[in-house]
Amino acid sequence: MSAVADTHGHAHDAHGHHGGYSGIMRWITTTNHKDIGTMYLWFSFVMFSIGGLMAVMIRMELFSPGLQFFNPEFFNQLTTMHGLIMVFGAIMPVFVGFANWLIPMQIGAPDMAFARLNNWSFWLLPFAASLLVLSFFMPGGAPGVGWTMYAPLTAQMGMGMDFTIFAIHILGMSSILGSINIITTILNMRAPGMTLMKMPLFCWTWLITAYLLVAVMPVLAGAVTMTLTDRHFGTTFFNAAGGGDPVLYQHIFWFFGHPEVYIIALPGFGVISQVIPAFSRKPLFGYASMVYATSAIAILSFIVWAHHMYTVGMPVTGQLFFMYATTLIAVPTGVKVFNWVTTMWKGSLTFETPMLFACGFLFMFTLGGFTGLVLALVPVDIQLQDTYYVVAHFHYVMVAGALFAAFAGIYFWLPKWTGKMYNETLGKIHFWLTMIFFNMIFFVQHFLGLAGMPRRIPDYNLMFETWNKISSLGAFGMGLAQLLFLYIVVSCIRNGKPAAQLPWEGADSLEWTHLPTPAPYHSFETPPVVK
Amino acid sequence: MKVVAALAGLGGLALSGTAHAIAWNFQTPASRLAAEIDDLHQLVMWLIIVIFAGVFGAMFYSVYAHRKSKGHRAEQFHENTAVEIIWTVIPAIILVAIAVPVTKVVISQKDTSGADITVKVTGYQWKWGYDYLKGEGEGISFLSTLATPRAQIEGTAPKGENYLLEVDNELVVPVGKKIRILTTAADVIHSWFLPAFGVKQDAIPGFLRDTWFRADRTGTFRGQCAELCGKEHGFMPTVVRVVSAEDYTKWVAEFKQKSAKAAEDDTKTFTLQDLMQRGEKVYAANCVACHQANGRGTPPAFPPLAGSKTATGPKEGHIDTVLNGRPNTAMQPFKQLSNAELAAVITYERNSWGNKAGEVQPAEVKARRK
Fold first, then answer.
1. A192 in a structural domain
2. Is residue A209 within 8 Å of A267, Cβ to Cβ?
């Protein structure tokens, strides 16, 4: 026995605490939740840069009326790939990165439940992303069908469409495996005394998100597989000539697509629910109602999908049902916003970068929620469906919601992850630049949509020119501002000042109170005692 | 600060080039439905502004007054059941209050009964087909294609006021009459969008959907296809000309006369020169988006015509391809065009860009129609 223990001990010394390998092999073989979390975060930053570059190209073409830089086919490919890469490559993985880093530390566990599966969930992603990006180099280019990939336009695309379909299969597999891991970890590996209702809200939102993912990723896989067999194997799921229906695709897609909106948003809600109390030096207001509201949003998200399809021609009862169900979501969402504001109320507030991003999130996500209410109303949506109003709306939700929450979280936990402090002044500048340019891009798009400019067009009438110019200038600025973000993070890692054990006075979850800064390679080898 | 100033300067520069009216709200409604939608939108916007001001008034007050730097000490309250119930119930009541007027508009929006004129609208890649099915003008049928010259799009000519929002043949309807629109499509999903009437209805291949409008004033009203339908999605406007009842009757009579003349053309024999001249126009309206002005296409989806087997081979094959399209490709049927138009465009394709394959007469096209 002792011989075995000795060998083990020696192995440990020889290879440090990073497992068996060093260099690139460490990252390929790692089963450590922190290493994997780090890889998710960097992966999503790379995809964010690629998707962002495409956004800048889109805005270049839209800077002036007329066709200047790209032909319409390539423009459609850009909008399609920008959407797919940002949703599946940037926003979803960034929050999985947070989950990997934080869930074991916040519930008092040593690691994720399925460590090897965790490694595989991550390493599926680079392959899926390569398939997606490679589709540009196929004959006929990447699919130019929009990220929603509506049939039967998909039937006209070249081989790039098949690459995209396979990429989505792999991405879906990765998400499902990751979700199973998160659910198992949260349900089985909490430290003694850490009851569900004591968990930090971030763990709660991820638990609910993971269930959503397991429920809807297979639905998306089904939709794209049916597209694949329609394209190549003579099935006619979405072709009326063979007894199918193109609208069936939309029903299946949005049955995935609407919960997907919350898959993107909920982990961000979790991050914000950690950040706001910390900088208010006050406990989160209405913890229990936050948990119930999150669950309510998740459940409602399954019965509202056809509000994306008011213009396909549903019976009036269908339109009314989906309208009422959709407006109902405003209630739990309102509860969350009220809770966050009340958490700040009579706190002792300071505004470091994470708190700035959290306030920005709160302000603009609410704006996105309100335009969502406008779009939920059938008659108004009939005017606005497929116009720039919708583009503005969902970017307020996705960028001001998810991306701002991700920035808040990164600045908040960067000291815990690296043991070093970022440059606070630069962080604040990054916030203000992002905030200003973001609104420059997307606020004016509401006007374009109201005036009737359709989305996904490479060219437009002169009456839309002014807002498009402002929007494009904003996009160039927003792109540049993210280079500053990269600089802040890299310089923090390479030569940041050492962080204090508790850099944020009000932070009170286990990773701050029970673990040193920076967090050790293995989190809790013995479970902490939670009162 | 320098950066901000530079950007502001750049923005000013960019804007100074724009002398056109800036659109930033709904188009002026031209139907009761559109006006009702406008009212609903305003109602909801006011409500939103009030709530937004309330919630963020509280937040900004807190940001101002409850700062640590002002020495504010945090209170530790973290729940209050009464408050939480109130702010769950009040929003729910507001939603019910909004739902009442909205539901009324939804119901009238979906009521397509009692129409005076019914028009079937067919979406093609990338134009609209209009067939008057019922009511005055029954039997009229034509295609509506973008009329903006390629030169304006490519920037070699100045852009006009209705850039990308102008067509060769507008949908013409009488003012004050209930027009029922049936939508369908020949290839992929399109969406018929006319903002001034508050109408947007997807056109789904293989299915019929319907919507309606009643224009309350004369004039020309413009919109665009609203559902991504492939590469020329941004180039298929929907334009409706609303005229008085008398003008409409006149227009119907003129249209029927023109069609009768087109039928006469079927039996005529044209010279190669006449066919080429007319063919060039038909080509510019129907074929150029895919096959390009130089006949080289954009392969692989849109093959070249210059030197192609079809355009230089037997006439029958060429006529069949244009008439019936090629299944499972982007090439659609063009049987909506008249025999003379088809003969002209086929002749043009067979005798341009180095092709020399002889002329085709209307009678030959007529013979190949099934």
1. yes
2. yes
- Residues of A labelled catalytic: 82, 111, 147, 174-175, 258, 260, 262, 273, 307-308, 333, 336, 455
Q: What CATH number should be reported for the domain holding residue A45? A: 1.20.210.10
Instruction: Note which residues in 24-63 of chain A have CB less than 8 A from chain B.
Output: 63
pLDDT digits (tens, 9 = 90+) for B277-293: 999 989 988 888 888 88
Q: A7 vs chain B: nearest CA distance in angstroms?
A: 52
Interface test with A, best of B39, B68, B329 (most A CBs within 10 A): B68
- Which of A139, A335, A374 is opposite residue B88, by nearest beta carbon? A335
Cis peptide bond upstream of B126, omega within 30: yes
Identify whether the C-beta of residue B202 lies closer than 8 Å to the C-beta of residue B216: no
Cβ–Cβ gap A146/B228 under 8 Å: yes
Q: How many domains does chain A have?
A: 1
What pLDDT digit, counting tens, does each position of B212-232 carry? 999 999 999 999 999 999 999
Scanning every residue of chain A, which has its alpha carbon at the shortest distance from the alpha carbon of B20? A463
Distance of CA A47 to CAs A51, A130, A265, Å? 6, 10, 18
Among partner residues A72, A282, A320, which is closest to B234 by beta-carbon distance?
A72
Going from the C-alpha of A468 to that of each of A60, A368, A435, A482, B259, the distances in angstroms are 10, 20, 18, 21, 43
| Structure tokens belonging to residue B211 | 């919507």
Judge residue A170's burial from the number of C-beta atoms within 10 Å of its C-beta, 0-12 exposed, 13-18 middle, 19 or more buried: buried
- pLDDT tens across A247-294, in order? 999 999 999 999 999 999 999 999 999 999 999 999 999 999 999 999
For the segment A502-527, what is each residue's pLDDT rounded down to a tens digit?
Answer: 999 999 999 999 999 999 998 898 89
- The verdict on residue A33 lying in a domain is yes
* CB A248 within 8 Å of CB A238: yes
Residues spanned by the domain of A394: 24-513
The residue of chain A nearest to residue B14, with distances taken between CA atoms, is A469
Q: Which domains does chain B have, with CATH numbers?
A: 23-66+79-111 (1.10.287.90), 117-254 (2.60.40.420), 266-368 (1.10.760.10)
